[in-house]
Amino acid sequence: MKNLKVESLKIGLCLLLAGATCLFATGCSEDEPAPVAIAPPPPPPPAAPEAPAVLSIEQLMAELNIDPRISLPEDRAPSTTEDRKAVLEFFDAFARGNATSLKSMLTEADQRQLAALVATPAWKQTTSQIKQIDIQTGINPTGQKCALAVIETGSGAVTIFQPQLWAFNTEEDSAVFEAEACPPGVLDKLSGDWIAAWYQILADEMALATKPEEEYDLVQQNLDTSEDGGSGTPPPPKGGLRQPSGPPLQAPGPGGPGGR
What ranges do the domains of the chain cover? Predict the structure, then answer.
């Protein structure tokens, strides 16, 4: 009987040792949770597409068959291909005298002005004498895109420079241009940034036009130098005073600030 208990105890110790060996060898346990699989990190987002390269003026003039009399330097051209196309095509219509294409890019008010001009011989006569169109672009004080052109016309030795400033907007494949007011003699007043100077001249003229008129008190002066109080012929000047010489002062003529 004693031997049976000893044998049972030996069997129990063997089973206990076997279980301990399994636990330390495999690390398995009924109380330990199963390992959780860690998902790999998500792939990085795709890189943003590169902005399309701006086409050069030279390339656009070749692709669009722009009249060679058009001059738009790279450093004065718009920053997008869309705006560059709009400006080149707009002034190309001027250079070629293409009133139909030009009309499609004008505001309604400017379309009426164009129609009145085309109805006269002046349109064909002027456009046929265009020698060159120098263009520069920029932004006006309200942030709108602008294009300033100086159109050189004339025949023979006679050359006329006609400046005009346009504000424009582009949407998809269409563009609309609107003429800005042209102050008299503006070409002689432009310096530095011509577009900024143009709008400054307009602002100055507007301020002058809205300024209230000042009243002046005329100082009365007795111009009678005769000794008898105004009768008879005045005596010669005394004390070596000289009579005023030169042409009389004239009132300013029309065409001052605010003229169109």
Answer: 57-209
Q: Which CATH architecture has domain 57-209?
A: Roll (3.10)
pTM: 0.64
- Grouping H, G, I as helix, E, B as strand and the rest as coil, residue 179 is strand
What's residue 233's pLDDT? 47
What's the token pair of residue 254? 């029309």
Q: Which residues of 23-43 are buried (b: 16+ CB within 10 A; e: fewer)?
A: eeeeeeeeeeeeeeeeeeeee
List the one residue out of 114, 98, 54, 42 whose CA is nearest residue 78. Answer: 54
CB 199 within 8 A of CB 138: no
DSSP β-bridge partners for residue 153: 130, 160
pLDDT tens-digit series, residues 191-220: 999 999 999 999 998 888 887 766 545 555
The confidence band for 78, taking pLDDT boundaries of 50, 70 and 90, is very high
Count CB neighbours of 19 within 10 A: 10
* 92-64-76-113 Cα dihedral, nearest 10 degrees: 30
Residue 33 near residue 63, CB atoms below 8 Å:
no
> Which residues have CB under 8 Å from 128's CB, separation 6+?
97
CB-CB contact of 70 with 95 (8 Å): yes
Closest listed residue to residue 148, CA positions, set 160, 127, 162, 159: 162
Q: pLDDT class for 186, splitting at 50, 70, 90?
A: very high
Cα angle 174, 179, 181; round to 5:
160
